[in-house]
Each structure stands twice: as C-alpha cells, then as structure tokens.
Amino acid sequence: MTAIVRETEGCGAEIANIAVPKATDAEINLIRDTVYNRGVAFLHDQHLTPEEQIAFAERIGPIVLNRYFPKTERYPQIAKVEKTEEQKTNIGGGWHTDHSYDQAPAMGSVLLAIETPPTGGDTQFANMYAAYEALSDGLKATLSGLKARHASEHIYGMEGVYGKTDQAHLAGHAENPWAVHPAVITHPGSGRKALYVNPAFTLGFEGWSREESAALLGYLYQHAIKPEFVHRFQWKPGSMAIWDNRATWHLAMNDYQGQRRLMHRITIAGGPLH
Q1: Burial annotation 205-228 (CB, 10 A radius, 16+ → b, else e)
Q2: Is the pTM of this model over 0.70?
Q3: CATH code for the domain of 117
C-alpha cells in the first residue's frame, strides 16, 4: 500500500500505511521530508520492540543520549518519559523546544506511546515556520539581527524547578549547558526560516536588558501559540511522533491525574544553527 500523508491543522502531518520496522528507504525519506517541512510526522499502530525503535531512529539520524531523563533498563538510547498514578507533575508540561541550550541542539525526537491514560495526556505542537511567517516585515527585520541566550540550569540544575516537584529526579544536575543562537534560523533541511526562541529555555536577547527582552519575548510567545499554528495530538499505545525541534514547540498536557502515562523517547542529533 502506498503511504498517505495528510496535513494536520496548524502543525504536522499524519502518515498512514507505513509499517516502521519494514519501511523502505523511500518511506524513510518521506518521513524525514514531512518532519522537515511540516515540523512533525504522526504515525499510529507502531507497536515496536525497543530494538525496532532504535533501528528506526538511526535511519532518521544519529542518536544522542539525553543527559537528564532516566533511561530504560536495558537500552540507554531510550529515555523514559513517565508519570505514575501517584505523581502530580508531568514532564514537559510547558511550551518548549528540546535542547535549545546546547551549542548544537538536537534535531528532534522519536516518541513512542507505551501506556496512555483512558483520556487526556495529549501533546500540543506549534509551528514555528508559520509563527515566523505571520510576523510583520518590521518585526522580522528586528529579529533578523538578534541572538538569544538559552540555558538549562534553571530547569535541571541544583536549584532547578523540577527539584521542587515530585519529578525531582530530573533536577540536581551539575552539567547545565547554555548557548546563544539566532532568534530566527534557516532550517537546514527545508531552507525555510523559523522562529527560534521558546518559553522554557530562552533567557533573553544578547545586548538587551532583562526587561526589554521580556517584553518582546512575551509578545512572541503569545503569538506563536495562536490556534492557527497549533495541533493537538491524541495518543494511544503504538502512536508515534517524530518532531523537529528547529521548527516546532511542544507541550505535554497534564490532565490525567491518577493515571499512568509512559512514553519511550529517542533523541536525534542535530548541529549548529544559522
């Protein structure tokens, strides 16, 4: 059967008729191109073994180990994104893009649903191509010369915000990188421009005061999550999302208290941003 790509409203595209373990080179290229151009590729009914998930991720790009998330017992390439029945705090519960604090940020992630609650636990994705393209020419010109500082210590460090929650194992780390990246990048795969700041890890613009940065960043953050730029993805066991950190934000919804949710995530290496 021929693979079918259906663009999803706001962000991403759903791909049907691909069995990931048996995917051809042409199908892998289709997935990669969809991720590059739509920001996220969504698939369902992918009930993979850990070995199959790792093999698939390696066909998308080189794997990089996440320094903060707990690993699965036998497979260090796979990080566990888990919330138990007893926990109140979830992982990734605010808008963000992963690894923007690294000098060479990760390209993206392959996230596979293992256990999902009966209702809730959706993930929202926001399209940073569309968010940038909808800005005025004047604001685009202002942003074109700006660089922003990104950091991880306030989230994952010794006094990081997770340390004050029941996901405290994510905080307390001594290695907390930071980086400076352009506020607008040109995506190396699509050639399109995308907004590259995010609420979780961006601290401010180089050469601007905290107050000046907060004013402009606050506007951009509200703009970037307008409904026309966002897609809300509903998971079920076997659902998979492959997203591109350079073109999207995401937010994991925390609306399933008392239920367990377990995802397996593999991070794909990226490179410097321009």
Answers
A1: beebeeeebeebbeebbeebbeee
A2: yes
A3: 3.60.130.10
